[in-house]
Design brief:
Low-confidence stretches: 1-42, 256-260, 505-511, 594-601
Number of domains: 4
GO molecular function: mechanosensitive monoatomic ion channel activity
Radius of gyration: 45 Å
Number of helices: 28
Membrane topology: Multi-pass membrane protein
Mean pLDDT: 75
Shape: extended
Strand order of the largest sheet: 8-7-6-5-9
Protein name: Mechanosensitive ion channel
InterPro entries: LSM_dom_sf (IPR010920), MS_channel_C (IPR049278), MscS-like_channel (IPR052702), MscS_beta-dom_sf (IPR023408), MscS_channel_2nd (IPR006685), MscS_channel_C_sf (IPR011066), MscS_channel_CS (IPR006686), MscS_channel_TM-2 (IPR011014)
Subcellular location: Cell membrane
Number of strands: 12
Length: 839
């Protein structure tokens, strides 16, 4: 019944939405109105019922049938559920409040940027231009995000609109029930469906109009921001092209050739006012950045204090203090170290921030370093450091000036001279070697001197803008180099505290050797620090964008070898992913494996399953390297094919060892920490590798055994299920000794020995009557095979003492000597004079 009614829905909805008449009415508009002509001014349930009744009389358009009742029931249920779902989505609405509230802030930012651009003089500061560019970039990202959100909303509304009007194209709605009772029930259902359709359609149109207007507002601002951004790019290009052109008057001609005769303090006041407004707007847009850095500072501080507290709890006061005194920075200055960590990382990673934010980061970093250096540096060196901080503050203030003044020019001259003298003083300061290695500090100081001298020359030649960049770069690069050097030490100390705080725990950190970690990670952190310092230098010289674009173009430009296309970036990504997977595999082996210094009886719980994880990491790394680098996966089959040929010609042993390693991982005949014997070699398993395994021999050597030998040769595992071991030795006593007494003396040597097991009990057996002794064989068990040698030594010493006290002889070997012949001259030599006796 309901299904037939639903087939009429498109025609009825069309008449309601258009509010017009059907095609038959257009043909008879001059005649008297027929029953098939419907004009609905007000949509209500009564009118809808009349319209349905009128349309039902037109047999050319509507078919009466009772054969499709089941289909009509399903169809009307589906449409009702669909409209309910769509209406629910429309009622929840689309969250555009943030966009609407953000538009005034965008307009304020644009107005400020336009004011800054309009106030740029003939000698603009590149920092001011760059700050405008940064703000425009932030606005561009924000507007682009808004556009993406609005486009997704609009697509959803269009989809809803298409879904609604798909009801019109359903030809099945032309059927209605023929039976009067079904027809009456049908009227109620179809009336509710039509009213629901109209409500959904109206709400959807309202949302489409609202989203469309908001899209238009965002698009207009995005276009304006893009135009201003291109203008800033053009200004930066012009500044780079004219970087070494004279932009101000010479120092010796203050009243001639005056390009921009402005007073210093008014320029300073307006510059600070503008920078404050820029900073406020930037914080409004990018406040999550501040939250992230604050969260990092809180987490790092908690981590440090937590480890310090655990060290003090796990050790006595004297021991804990001794351990903590090995940390030169974190234990003494935890808050200052946290500030150094956050500000240094921010200085390296903050590529698109306003100059004021960057300078605040520099100054906070310098203040934190001052608290640390106050106790670590000598008084002379610390005074030099304070002078450098003063220079940093003056150059930071100078970078905010939007116009060049005559006083600023003289200040740059004095700053360059002072920096040069200060650099030479640092170069001769021998105390620097106690703070940092000379191979690190001397290049930094030499670069500081060279850049300062270059700034001095540029000031004299009236290249004031470039001189400001060089002078600021000299002092900032030096301070940040010291900060990065300190940061590496802070991170190493943080790892040290983590290891020391968890040595007595059951976590994998208890297996770690700090010296090993320091040796492996120090070089890596130093490389990262050098890269970060180079990034800071490039950014301070405003070469970062140019270098980044040049490198990106070089890496992304396509090349061709034969029929294969490639880019250097894909090669680097491929190598990098392989390297990262290899390092990750080694790191897993180190952290969850054995470091070679596990305590006696401590067996690694992760076992040989570690090998499977390492293989999975390496295999995943290879597949990810192919996918990330853009190399077609079908090329992998070529590599596998080439590998198969290599296996056939000379890689049988390699593959054999690889497969043997997998067998070891599944079968687990040995695990890390087991004491094994393979052939003539014995030792403790240190690592089960992919191709070979390592064991630590008792003599201190490290033996590398191919996995194939562990599978093919006879393998003795002393600790497969437990660490007990039977110890055997022989002892002989002289003939005539009391056998029972000897047996009792030997057994008494095992009494009250904690290393010797009482079950099985020691066994003493008389095994033979030797040439010169009665021989006994002694068996006893020890709980830990590592103590077998010590236990046997102590037992033998006790038996020897007891036998001596009892007067029982431990005989020497006895032999009978038979002399068959001897030289007569030798006999005469040994005879006594005058006798035949031999002496």
């Amino acid at each position: 019944m309901f299904t037939k009614a639903t087939w009429l829905l498109p025609i009825i909805i069309l008449s309601i939405i258009t509010g017009g008449s059907f095609h038959a009415q257009a043909q008879r508009k001059k005649q008297k109105a027929k029953v098939d002509t419907i004009h609905m001014v007000t949509i209500d349930s009564a009118t809808i019922r009349k319209n349905i009744a009128a349309l039902a009389k037109d047999s050319n358009r509507i078919k009466k049938s009772d054969t499709s009742v089941a289909i009509l029931i399903n169809r009307i249920e589906d449409y009702t559920l669909m409209l309910n779902e769509v209406m629910s989505s429309l009622r929840r609405g689309f969250d555009t409040v943030g966009i609407s509230n953000g538009l005034p802030m965008t307009d304020t930012s644009l107005a400020l940027i336009k004011y800054n651009i309009a106030s740029l003089g003939r000698t603009p500061n590149i920092n001011d231009i760059y700050t405008n560019k940064v703000m425009l970039e932030q606005l561009q990202r924000k507007l682009d995000s808004w556009q993406s959100t609005l486009f997704s909303y609009y697509d959803k509304l269009v989809g809803i609109n298409d879904t609604i009007y798909s009801l019109r194209r359903d030809s099945a709605m032309r059927n209605i029930p023929a039976e009067n009772e079904l027809y009456g029930f049908y009227l109620g259902q179809i009336t509710n469906l039509i009213l629901k359709f109209h409500a959904v359609d109206s709400a959807n149109k309202v949302n489409l109009i609202r989203i469309g207007l908001l899209q238009n507002k965002v698009a207009n601002r995005y276009i304006e921001v893009s135009n201003l951004y291109e203008d800033m790019d053009y200004r930066l290009e012009q500044h780079s092209a004219n970087m070494f052109a004279r932009d101000y008057r010479y120092l010796w001609r203050p009243h001639r050739d005056s390009i921009n005769p402005l007073d210093f303090f008014p320029v300073l006041k307006s510059s600070l006012h503008k920078s404050g407004k820029v900073m406020g707007i930037f914080f409004t847009i990018q406040w999550p950045v501040f939250f992230v850095w604050l969260l990092l500072a809180v987490l790092f501080t908690w981590w440090v204090y937590h480890n310090i507290r655990r060290i003090k709890q796990n050790h006595t006061e004297e021991e804990g203090e001794t351990i903590l005194q090995h940390t030169q920075y974190l234990y003494r200055f935890p808050i200052a170290c946290t500030v150094v960590l956050v500000t240094t990382l921010s200085a390296v990673l903050s590529i698109r921030y306003p100059i004021l934010f960057t300078e605040i980061t520099w100054l906070l970093n310098a203040i934190a370093l001052t608290f640390i250096f106050r106790r670590l540096l000598s008084p002379t060196l610390f005074r030099t450091w304070l002078l450098m901080i003063g220079l940093l503050f003056l150059y930071c203030l100078n970078n905010l000036l939007i116009e060049v003044t005559y006083a600023e020019q003289w200040g740059l001259l004095a700053g360059a001279i002072f920096s040069t003298v200060l650099g030479y003083r640092l170069l001769k300061e021998t105390a620097l070697s106690t703070f940092a290695p000379s191979r690190f500090i001397r290049p930094v100081v030499k670069l500081f001197i060279a850049t300062s001298i270059f700034s001095l020359v540029l000031v004299i030649l009236a290249r004031v803008g470039t001189a400001k960049i060089m002078g600021s770069s000299a002092i900032v690069n030096t301070v940040m180099a010291l900060s990065l050097f300190t940061l590496v030490k802070i991170l190493m100390e943080a790892v040290y505290l983590q290891v020391e705080a968890n040595k007595d725990s059951s976590t994998f950190i208890s297996f770690m050797d700090y010296q090993d970690v320091q040796r492996k990670s120090k070089t890596f952190l130093a490389i990262l620090a050098v890269v970060g310092w180079l990034i800071i230098i490039a950014r301070n010289l405003y070469l970062y964008d140019a270098i980044h674009e040049s490198i990106s173009d070089f890496l992304s430009s396509p090349h061709q070898i034969g029929n294969s296309d490639f880019t250097f970036s894909s090669i680097i990504i491929f190598i990098l992913v392989i390297w990262v997977s290899t390092v990750a595999s080694q790191l897993i082996a180190y952290m969850f494996g054995s470091t070679g210094q596990t305590t006696s009886g401590k067996k690694n719980k992760f076992g040989s399953a570690l090998l499977l994880l390492r293989l999975a990491v390496l295999a995943g790394g290879v597949l990810l390297a192919f996918a990330a680098s853009g190399i077609p996966m079908d090329k992998l089959t070529i590599v596998i094919g080439a590998l198969g040929v290599g296996i056939g010609f000379g890689l049988q042993n390699v593959v054999n060892n690889l497969v043997s390693g997998i067998i070891l991982a599944f079968e687990k005949p040995i695990e890390v920490g087991d004491v094994i014997e393979v052939g003539s070699r014995s030792g403790t398993v240190k690592e089960i590798g992919i191709r070979s395994s390592k064991i630590n021999a008792p003599d201190g050597s490290e033996v590398i055994i191919p996995n194939g030998d562990l599978i093919s040769q006879q393998l003795i595992n002393w600790t497969r299920t437990n660490r007990t071991r039977r110890v055997t030795f022989l002892i002989g006593v002289g003939y005539g000794s009391d056998v029972k007494q000897v047996t009792d003396i030997i057994k008494s040597a095992f009494t009250d020995r904690k290393d010797v097991l009482t079950l099985p009990a020691p066994v003493v057996q008389l095994i033979e009557f030797g040439d010169n002794a009665v021989n006994f064989r002694v068996y006893f068990w020890v709980g830990d095979l590592d103590n077998a040698g010590t236990a046997m030594s102590e037992v033998l010493a006790t038996i020897y003492t007891a036998l001596n006290n009892a007067g029982i002889e431990l005989p020497y070997p006895q032999r009978d000597l038979h002399i068959r012949s001897i030289d007569e001259l030798l006999m005469k030599k040994w005879e006594k004079p005058g006798t035949d006796e031999v002496v």
